[in-house]
Design goal:
This protein is mostly helical and 406 residues long. The chain is 76% helix and 5% strand. A hairpin with a 5-residue loop joins strand 1 (12-18) and strand 2 (24-30). Helix 14 runs antiparallel to helix 15 (335-347).
């Protein structure tokens, strides 16, 4: 319970004291209370003088992100490769981290290791930040006496996985943001601008063009029911999120639909295959048996359709089926991927072939995102032109009609 509180509270302390040579030293540390800071300084041979709690800021309340965890694994692997003891490595990385919540997490793990837990056991106590795959690989590294090698593999895996996620987010963020702005601008025009034109048109004493009248009717509807429209959309969004989080069949249907969606679907397919291959290469190279590795691979694909397929593959492989044959049975993997996995199985280099597949599809995701961005820009501009330009044209049609009559 105290360990969880240490991460949640994120209390920073500024301290001053004197080291063994009598020199004045100062620093910042994250701990649960002043007494914990005092004990930590005593262990370092520092005589504490002043210990003051630092004011909490918004930045200090930010939780560690997957990018933070990836950087942490890279730093830890570098420290251990350089021959620095594990506990000292945690102390160096934790004390030098700029995010207090990450400092708290690292120093909490350090305390658990000092109390007698192994590294993978300490990681397992923080499942929000260290998934089963990371914990299992660290355990394999501890048992094989090659912890720094496994940490390096985990760091590389997480860096590449996060790079793919960023690419996908980049592909989806731009069109979503532009369309959101378009909706806001359209709403502003309907609520504030169109009524001004409507009052102007009343003095014309003539029938308005059908398109203009339709826009004015839409403006009246939005003005009268705007609050209800926002409430309904908000309730629909909340209900959708609630049901999606609790209904696996719904998530599977959405994921399956997204895989078939134009433009975005092929990118999601390539990303899922890249994550599948990268996770398979990492776990198999770490010495994890194939059947056990497929359990971790399933959860790392990022898509329930592929996750279900990989779990079905695991069942087939456990009964003696070849991995390549099990992959073919899913009808989700391209023939090139199946053949490369088959070559890897036959040559005893499954991890290397899976790594090559991952490299290829990661490059494919990069290229596809860049191509999609270049294709979407003119399409989005056209949508903006139709929405905003259509409203402007509708308002000026009566003026043009009046000018023609004069």
């Amino acid at each position: 319970m105290a360990q969880t509180a240490a991460v949640k509270k994120d209390v920073s302390f500024l301290w001053e004291g004197r080291d063994k040579k009598g020199n004045r030293v100062r620093g910042k540390v994250v701990a649960t209370n002043r007494h914990a800071v005092w004990l930590d300084l005593q262990r370092q041979g520092i005589v504490p003088g002043k210990i003051k709690q630092q004011s909490s800021t918004f930045a200090s309340r930010k939780k560690p992100t997957p990018e933070d965890i990836a950087v942490f694994f890279r730093q830890l692997a570098t420290m251990l490769t350089a021959g620095i003891p594990l506990v000292q490595s945690f102390e160096i990385v934790g004390a030098g981290h700029e995010k207090p919540s990450m400092q708290a997490l690292i120093l909490d793990i350090k305390q658990q290791i000092e109390s007698g837990l192994t590294l993978h056991e300490a990681f397992a106590k923080h499942p929000l930040y260290f998934d089963d795959l990371s914990v299992n690989l660290v355990e394999a590294g501890e048992q094989a006496g090659a912890l720094e090698t496994l940490l390096d593999k985990i760091a590389s895996y997480k860096e590449k996985t996060e790079a793919i996620k960023k690419k996908i987010k980049k592909a989806l963020f731009y069109p979503t943001a532009v369309l959101f702005v378009a909706v806001i601008v359209t709403a502003i025009l309907l609520i504030f601008v169109i009524p001004q034109f409507e009052s102007l048109f009343k003095g014309f004493g003539a029938d308005l063009p059908a398109f203009t009248q339709m826009v004015i009717n839409l403006s009246r509807f939005v003005q009268a029911n705007g609050i209800y429209i926002v409430a309904v959309l908000g309730a629909a969004g909340y209900t959708f999120s609630y049901m999606k989080a609790r209904s696996r069949p719904m998530r599977e249907s959405i994921d399956r639909m997204m895989l078939k969606f134009p433009i975005i679907g092929p990118i999601l397919v390539k990303a899922a295959i890249a994550r599948f291959a990268r996770t398979l290469a990492t776990t198999f190279a770490a010495g994890v048996p194939l059947v056990e590795a497929l359990t971790s691979v399933a959860g790392a694909t990022g898509n329930i359709v592929y996750e279900t397929a990989v779990l079905r593959m695991k069942d087939e492989v456990s009964t003696g089926q070849r991995l390549q044959r099990a992959m073919e049975n899913t009808n989700l993997f391209p023939n090139m991927v199946n053949q490369m996995i088959a070559v890897g199985e036959e040559s005893g280099s499954l991890d290397q072939m899976a790594s090559k597949v991952a490299d290829f599809y990661e490059l494919e995701v990069d290229a596809a995102v860049d191509s999609m961005s270049s294709l979407l820009e003119p399409l989005i501009m056209a949508i903006l032109g139709v929405l905003v330009g259509g409203l402007v044209v509708a308002m000026y049609l009566p003026i043009f009609k009046l000018g023609a009559a004069v």
